[in-house]
Model the fold of this input.
Amino acid sequence: MKNTVQKTAVMNALMSLDHPTADEVYDCVHNEFPSISKATVYRILNRIAEEGEILHLRIPGGADRFDTTLCTHHHLQCNRCGKVCDVSVPELEGIEKRIKDENGFSIAGYRLVFSGLCSDCIFKK
Amino acid sequence: MKNTVQKTAVMNALMSLDHPTADEVYDCVHNEFPSISKATVYRILNRIAEEGEILHLRIPGGADRFDTTLCTHHHLQCNRCGKVCDVSVPELEGIEKRIKDENGFSIAGYRLVFSGLCSDCIFKK
DNA sequence: ATACTAACTGAAATTAATTCTCATTTAGGA
DNA sequence: TCCTAAATGAGAATTAATTTCAGTTAGTAT
Done:
């Protein structure tokens, strides 16, 4: 992959944001690099996700988000403020084998998204 | 909710399909009821999902699907043919409490989608 | 049976997220 | 410096789903 100023700007934005959507990355990059195109942000995010440098999270019922934490983990999403947090779920370790044995389904990966209210929002209103 | 011919047709379609998307429901209903509008299919599906008669599944990276199985369960999705199957995951029972204690996050629900290859597709090509 | 009204419907426009097209530019190797 | 594959910008296109609005209907009240 070529090393372009656009890619560097997107990488910097990813570092400074927490589980951003593509649009949030675009807004952030667009500040210091007004000429960047939204299509370029999407392309760069997809490209580096394919290469395994970041995770591409497909959030049920919302825009995709991108995650710089690479080890296996899952997500909590707040229904009120939309914030996404990481959570580890050791209960699921090794489940691929059980599913393979019981359902004949070869698991490449899985996504677990919890939805509810974050600690901040529980106390609001 | 009113009992319309459109609703009856959508319910019948749901019975005859397995984890259909809204579009698949539309195609099926449209055969015997050519004048039905796609908006009506979406509206009826959302309405009966809100009332708890079916589940509205938000599939990461794909169209939403609808499920007539109501007890808690999760899904396997085949990356090749797109088929979705049910799977139960008792490993996660009671996990809401652990997450609440450790993260202060009050869980309303969670979705777990496994992706990989179904037994049919493993042997194709 | 009739009238009434809130709920429902069809068609088309709209929104949101993402991808695609294509002409132009650029990074980095020869 | 030249060359070319790769990357970019701008905007059109796509996809899934929702909204709008004028007209229709189910089912309750009379």
